[in-house]
Amino acid sequence: MSKRVVIIDDAIFMRKALGEIVEELGYEVVGEGFDGTSAISLYFELKPDILLIDIVMPNMNGLDASKEILSKDKNAKIVIVSALGQQGLIIDALKSGVKDFIIKPFDKDKLKKVLLKL
Asked: What CATH number has the domain bearing residue 30?
């Protein structure tokens, strides 16, 4: 059985690009969302093996959503996928329990290494 992944990003093209690579690597995309609020609800509804989440999004950012998820499930495997220049936010995310991060624009090999590590 393949690992189940939820992708959260406010950019449709980024969700599509991540989804294609994730599926090509043998994972199953079971849900997609566009903000931190949808991340929380989809995480607890779908219980994915891995959550890929952007930081800068409307309504609730990915860092706040990640912290909320981790406060209720310390074993959540969350990976931040975010643009360069947000190092401070990424460090904060890692301190809060996020497992790893990938800098946009990312390449398939980096994504594969991070997913396999989890």
From this structure: 3.40.50.2300
Smallest Cα–Cα separation from 98: which of 80, 116, 71? 80
Report the domain count for the chain. Answer: 1
Quote helix, strand, coil % in the chain, to nearest 5: 45, 20, 30
Q: How large a percentage of the chain has pLDDT more than 90?
A: 70
Q: How far apart are CA 79 and CA 6, in angstroms?
A: 10
Alpha-carbon distance 19 to 4, whole Å?
11
Give me 69's structure tokens.
């998820």
**pLDDT digit string, tens, across residues 19-49:** 999 999 999 999 999 999 999 999 999 999 9
Measure CA 72 to chain center. 17
Question: By residue range, what is the domain housing residue 88?
Answer: 4-117
d(CA 87, CA 75): 23
Exposure pattern of 78-103 as b/e (b: 16+ CB <10 Å)? Answer: bbbbbeeebeebbeebeebbbbbbbe
